[in-house]
Design a protein that fits this description.
Elements lengths: L5 H15 L12 E6 L10 H19 L3 E3 L3 E2 L4 H10 L3 H18 L10 E2 L3 H16 L3 E11 L4 E3 L4 E2 L2 E2 L6 E11 L5 H7 L8 H11 L1 E11 L4 E7 L10 E4 L6 H4 L5 H12 L3 H5 L7 E9 L6 E7 L10 E4 L5 H9 L8 E2 L21 E2 L10 H14 L3 E7 L4 E2 L1 E2 L9 E3 L10 E2 L14 H4 L12 H4 E3 L6 E4 L3 E2 L4 H8 L12 H7 L2 E6 L7 H14 L9 E6 L3 E2 L16 H8 L1 H10 L7 E2 L2 H26 L9 H22 L3 H17 L6 H18 L4 H10 L16 H4 L3 E8 L2 E9 L4 H10 L1 H7 L4 E7 L3 E6 L1
Parallel strand pairs: 1-2, 1-26, 3-4, 12-14, 26-27, 28-29, 30-33
Antiparallel strand pairs: 5-6, 5-9, 7-8, 9-19, 10-11, 10-13, 10-18, 12-15, 13-14, 16-17, 20-25, 21-22, 21-24, 23-24, 30-31, 32-33
Helix pairs in contact: 1-24, 3-4, 18-19, 19-20, 20-23, 21-22, 21-23, 22-23, 23-24
The protein binds ligand ANZ and zinc ion.
Length: about 850
């Protein structure tokens, strides 16, 4: 067939792949494994380009590794529980299960139309009771080990979604999802004790060498280890001490007052009669404010004096005790020693209320700070101590250690390690989630701690409901309204009991789905530990960087729990993490309904075929970077595939009988050199996650083959036949349908993806290497050495890989790239 008509071939190959089951994992037991995974989607009705890109990055590796001989596991599933389906149900009365099933069906059809190589026999749906029963099972195991507990605490309540949301989902006081105000609410909730693993999760970040730095940095910051000290200040006139938490014990000789949280337990006790009215008024006012209000950027720091004094444990000096809005009762000890000379917040507060400022740290440089009352700003760096008794002259670092040791020796305090990370409150007042397997029995459990449902009775299924009556978005949790479900019998005494009506955060589902894929129908445990031995950890995980501190931290935690339970051998879920950039519209804004700049994947597949859609999205830019959609480039990629097709069609007849044993010289040698160089370049580019240069390499290889004109001799014909076959092989990860069609036309009996990735002949790829000067804004930054015939894309990739160039480009936006063949490149960036 002379004409490239993707619509005529793509469906056929997809069906053949499916029928042959070639993407089934576990079919090469002796081979080394690769587990390639993309973050499972929430099944909204339609796929968008972000999904297409996400899955392609995994797909390229899955196909490539299969060709490299690995036993590849590449599964797909549905993060099917959660708010959007329930919110939609509140609006239109369609049961979330019905909507979710429809969405999955249409989403899956779209996924299939792009020719991804998933092992569909492992499909997982988190709303299936056979899935969420294991959430419940984990819950009970963790409850037994103290990793789950019930607590009363202030939670973030979204006034729009009518549910509790995680700290991470509150952005500037409003809900990230619906933009409604978030308020504090005192409620019982269930929490995972993730903080038991804080240090482990932190330490292990150092082992995640193949994770993007910004993700590990975000997690490090989120866990927020801080090394500090606690010190007791004796309260004068009371048999009590208040314990402060500080990260700068070295400044304690400069402490001129202490501050308690308004709701600190000692406030009522120490406040003097004269100060009582004012203090109580302040405490009441604070109690009425949410944490976000109290700590907001624009909120003025304010406080009141309690009338009481406390003694510095080192000097015995008495300092006034205040309460203030910026001290939180649930951080540290809820009490702060204030050192205005060396802390900005304390400085502002001291100036506002005319409290003394005393300098005790001098810069190590030898510069001298003015005395406290002339100081213009706090000096917050480390330095050398002065006016600090026996510690004068020590550095901050020395004093921190020595002072903490002294406190410990005197029984007045100790060194501490604390974390910013909090336990993970996961109960939600929602219907469309995993029921928490707990019942409350007044007789056996008067304190309402909760009695776990016996494991043999799992799953606790979500009940059928009258959607409109139950999903109203108002009042108590939906499940509490379903009397036939919520009323049950006590597992201990058999008497009347009530089920827990709250459900689990859907982040629980995505904590371990990657392990469920290993044995999705296993029913003796969440997954088969033997399969975990074989396939964990995930080798490559692809997803959006927005998950840096929720999903990607939660599932690291869960992985440790799975090891603790003896289910899995690994400490960490994922070896290499790839976070893909955003697909913007042609206008440079993130594709979204709001901007009307969405390009629907289906429209591209219909017009140009899946192979063009795939190759374009991969060609448009490096995986981790954002790119702007370009219709011209789509056309360009389509033309490229047409030229591939035409080359193959032109030489097909000659290729049929072409054989040649002798040496290759002249033109036949050039044809072979072009083909083998392409093979080498594409393989190397894939290995370094440079799919765009891989495709650019194929384009250049194609041009080189065209440049050779029509093969005349037997040697030339044989060389060209080989070249076309190699072209099909290297196209397989990117444009698999056309690859198989061409390979078949050239006599292949098997799918290209089922064949080995061809080895290039080293003798055919030796190249002259030449130097290129690399400039950034016209300034020489590096010299790189590349193959003499390397094209623009390769030279650019090599230049971008250079550390000095990266440093010079850091934080800048690239405006232009100048390429002078065989001499230099210049990045113009601002
Ligand atoms: C004295 C001091 C002197 C401090 C100095 C800092 C600089 P991170 O690093 O975030 O853990 N702090 C302690 N408990 C607090 C609470 N419940 N609410 C508000 N602030 C609190 O911050 C630790 C520092 O935050 C502590 O160290 C304390 O102020 C303050 F030159 O103590 B510092
Ligand atoms: Zn009972």
């Amino acid at each position: 067939n002379e004409r490239y008509e993707p619509q005529a071939i793509e469906g056929k190959w997809q069906t053949r792949w499916d029928d042959a089951g070639i993407f089934r994992a576990g079919s090469r037991p002796g081979a080394p494994k690769k587990y390639v995974l993309e973050m499972l989607p929430y099944p909204s009705g339609k796929m968008h380009m972000g999904h297409v890109r996400n899955y392609l990055l995994g797909d390229v590796y899955a196909r490539y590794f299969r060709m490299k001989g690995f036993d590849v596991l590449h599964p797909m599933g549905w993060d099917a529980l959660g708010l959007p389906a329930e919110n939609a149900a509140i609006k239109d009365g369609v049961h979330p299960a019905v909507r979710t099933a429809e969405n999955i069906a249409s989403f899956k059809k779209e996924i299939k139309s792009l020719g991804y190589c998933y092992d569909w026999e492992r499909e997982v749906n988190t709303s299936d009771p056979e899935y969420y029963r294991w959430n419940q099972w984990f819950f009970i195991q963790m409850l037994e080990r103290g990793l789950v507990y019930r607590r009363f605490s202030k939670v973030n309540w979204c006034t729009g979604c009518h549910t509790v949301i995680a700290n991470e989902q509150v952005k500037d006081g409003v809900c990230e999802r619906c933009d409604s105000p978030v308020v504090d609410k005192e409620m019982p909730e269930w929490a995972f004790r993730i903080t038991r693993f804080s240090q482990e999760l932190l330490d292990a970040l150092d082992t995640l060498k193949e994770w993007p730095h910004r993700i590990t940095a975000a997690q490090r910051n989120w866990i927020g280890r801080s090394d500090g000290a606690e010190a007791d200040f004796r309260v004068q006139g009371h048999d009590a001490a208040l314990r402060v938490f500080t990260t700068r014990i070295d400044t304690i000789f400069g402490c001129t007052y202490v501050v308690l949280a308004p709701d600190h337990g000692l406030v009522a006790q120490v406040t003097t009669p004269e100060r009582r009215a004012e203090v109580e008024a302040f405490v009441r006012r604070m109690a009425a404010q949410s944490k976000t209000e109290r700590l907001g950027e624009g909120t003025e720091k304010e406080g009141v004096f309690t009338g009481a004094y406390a003694e510095n444990p080192f000097t015995g000096q008495a300092v006034p005790i205040w309460i203030a809005n910026f001290v939180l009762s649930d951080y540290g000890t809820g009490a702060v020693m204030s050192v205005p000379a060396h802390d900005e917040r304390d400085f502002a507060f001291a100036r506002k209320y005319s409290l003394p400022v005393k300098v005790v740290i001098q810069p190590a440089s030898g510069d001298k700070l003015p005395p406290g009352d002339e100081l213009e700003a706090a000096y917050t760096e480390y330095g050398v101590l002065e006016d600090s008794g026996a510690y004068t002259g020590q550095t901050s670092e020395q004093a921190r250690q020595a002072m903490a040791a002294s406190l410990e020796k005197d029984g007045k305090g100790k060194a501490t390690v604390t974390y910013r990370q909090k336990d993970w409150g996961f109960s939600r007042q929602r219907y469309w989630g995993t029921p928490i397997p707990i019942v409350y029995c007044e007789k056996c459990d008067p304190d309402r701690n909760g009695i776990p449902v016996p494991v043999a009775q799992l799953p606790v299924r979500l009940p059928e409901i009258d959607t409109q009556a139950v999903l109203t978005g108002k009042g108590e949790p939906p499940l509490a309204k379903v009397a036939s479900w919520v009323n049950t019998s006590c597992p201990k005494c058999g008497g009347p009991a009530r089920r827990e009506a709250e459900t689990m955060d859907t982040f629980v589902d995505s904590c371990w789905y990657f392990a469920r894929y290993l044995s999705p129908h296993y029913d003796a445990a969440p997954f088969d530990p033997k399969e975990a031995q074989r396939f964990l950890p995930v080798d490559i995980y692809v997803g959006g960087p927005e998950h840096a501190v929720m999903h990607l931290l939660y599932f690291r935690f869960w992985t440790r729990v799975m090891k603790l339970l003896g289910l899995s051998p690994v400490d960490e879920p994922v070896k290499r993490l790839i976070t893909q950039g955003i697909v913007n519209g042609p206008d440079g804004r993130k594709m979204s309904k709001r901007w009307g700049n969405v390009v629907a994947p289906a429209s591209i597949v219909q017009k140009y075929g899946a192979d063009t859609a795939r190759a374009y999205v991969l060609f448009a830019g490096p995986p981790e970077r954002d790119f702007d959609w370009s219709d011209e480039q789509v056309e360009g990629v389509f033309r490229f595939l047409k030229r591939v097709w035409a080359l193959a069609a032109t030489h097909q007849a000659a290729a049929a009988g072409a054989t040649h044993d002798g040496p290759y010289e002249g033109k036949s040698l050039e044809i072979r050199r072009a083909a083998h160089k392409t093979l080498k370049r594409v393989g190397e580019a894939i290995e370094r996650l440079s799919f765009n240069t891989a495709i650019a390499g194929i384009m250049e290889g194609l041009n080189a083959l065209y440049a050779q004109g029509t093969p005349e001799t037997a040697a030339e014909k044989a060389a060209m036949a080989e070249a076309v076959r190699l072209l099909a092989a290297v196209l397989t990860p990117f444009a698999p349908h056309i690859a198989d069609e061409i390979a078949e036309a050239y006599g292949s009996k098997d799918f290209t993806v089922a064949q080995s990735w061809p080895e290039f002949d080293p003798a055919l790829v030796v190249d002259d290497v030449i130097p290129y000067a690399v400039q950034v804004n016209g300034k020489l930054r590096a010299e790189i050495r590349v193959a003499a015939d390397a094209g623009e894309a390769d030279v650019r990739a090599a230049a971008e890989a250079d550390e000095k160039v990266q440093a010079a480009l850091a934080g800048k936006t690239l405006r232009k790239f100048v390429f002078v063949p065989k001499r230099l490149v210049n990045f113009v960036a601002t």
